[in-house]
Amino acid sequence: MQKIIFHIDVNSAFLSWSAVKMLKEGSKTDIREIDAVIGGSRENRHGVVLAKSLSAKKYGIRTGEPIAGALKKCPGLVIVPPEHSYYNEQSRLFISILKEYTPDIEQVSVDECYLDYSGIGNSFESPEEAAYIIRNRIKKELGFTVNVGISDCKILAKMASDFEKPDKTHTLYRSEIKQKMWSLPVGSLFMVGRKSADVLKKLGINTVGELACTSPEILELHLKSHGRIIWEYANGIDESEVNTEDADVKGIGNSVTLPKDVTELGEAKKVLLALSDKVALRLRKSGQKAGLICVEIKYSDFTKVSHQKVLEKYVSSCEGIYETAVELYRKLWNKNPVRLIGIRSGKLQSIDEPEQLSLFDYMEKNVTANEDKRKKADEAMDIINTKYGNRMITRAGLMKYDNKGDMQDEVEKG
């Protein structure tokens, strides 16, 4: 059977979930139907817009902009503070319904996931019928709506779910790209941010179709590896599979929400080094090493992207994790301001588990010797920091950054 993938996205998740909670508690007003946003507070005018209603959007209010700016655009705006514990519970209920249909689900954020329809196709007349049943069940049982994008690859399924909202199903198969996607503005393509769009427009590339028909070598010349990625997306090239591994349970990771947006690769490297150090320490404390590294980026507009790599050799050292993390970050980053960076390790095994060495490993004795030195240095640091505190000894590359005191863990799952 042809591979078919759903991308399922909760419509304005935080706003919808707060609306459901308020209605259950007796509110007579559905904040989805008025000028309303989730985030910050009206009293001190601090914080940013996390979600907005459709009517608030008409005032030009954008996700991620300061509350003060939103109030200038719409003085009568209703501001509702976020309730993240409740959102997490609604997310759990949302995913639990989907898992009644198939275990082949990859959750990529609190409000969106991919579902591999290929294994359940015989249970429905068509993918569209299955999407309709799922949408209506979520709406009836949980009180909020979702969009479903359907395609034969993940990136196009995601693009399809972003078409007209709310409570819709859209298809975007590879055979439909020219008809449905190529006429769209280039900035509407996933992973094309403002800066990338500006570069493309200077090259005379204004639509997704023009991007798709441009030489990828020219795009790489101006946008480096990111140019190749968006060219592939414009042409529907994406062979990634739905990853059903429960990485939060089987992996160890850290992420950080930054006090100010990162706009330079050098600053991002400092964050990646600090996160790599933390993840490596947690791996060693748990007596494990990782065979997979994943990097997550959340941009200032709250768009999330992630990419992972299976390693040739298992690692538990900061340097081993950092090298891969930088490689993944370079591939992911579209030059837009970054608000959150995360590193997660997966495919864990015992640190004492023997590994089969290749002929190259035997020949490269210096590499093995360096790894032994690195391991001993890590062990020495662990002993000192465990006894005297995590900041008693640190890496030279982290000293300037650590002394700012501006990075704290947001998530530690394992």
Textual characterization of the structure:
It is a single chain. The chain is of the alpha+beta class. It has 17 helices and 13 strands. It has helices spanning 13-24, 54-57, 67-73, 84-99, 127-142, 154-161, 177-180, 194-202, 208-212, 216-223, 225-234, 247-250, 265-285, 318-332, 359-363, 365-388, 396-404; strands spanning 5-10, 36-38, 51-52, 78-80, 105-109, 112-116, 146-151, 169-171, 252-262, 288-299, 304-315, 338-350, 411-413. The strands form 3 sheets. A 5-stranded mixed beta sheet has the order 5-6-1-7-8. A 5-stranded antiparallel beta sheet has the order 11-10-12-9-13. The longest helix is centred in the C-terminal third of the chain and has 24 residues, at 365-388. It starts with a strand and ends with a strand. The relative contact order is 0.09. Residues 358-369, 387-394 and 399-414 have low confidence and may be disordered.
- Assess the beta-strand content as a share of residues: 15-25%
Structural class: alpha+beta
Element order, helices and strands?
Answer: EHEEHHEHEEHEHEHHHHHHEHEEHEHHHE
- Number of DSSP E strands: 13
The first-to-last residue Cα distance is: 36 Å
Residues in helix, %: 40-55%
Count of DSSP-assigned helices:
17
Give the radius of gyration. 23 Å
Mean pLDDT: 85
Largest sheet: 5 strands, mixed
Lateral arrangement of strands in the main beta sheet: 5-6-1-7-8
Instruction: List unreliable stretches of 5+ residues.
Output: 358-369, 387-394, 399-414
What gross morphology would you assign?
Answer: globular
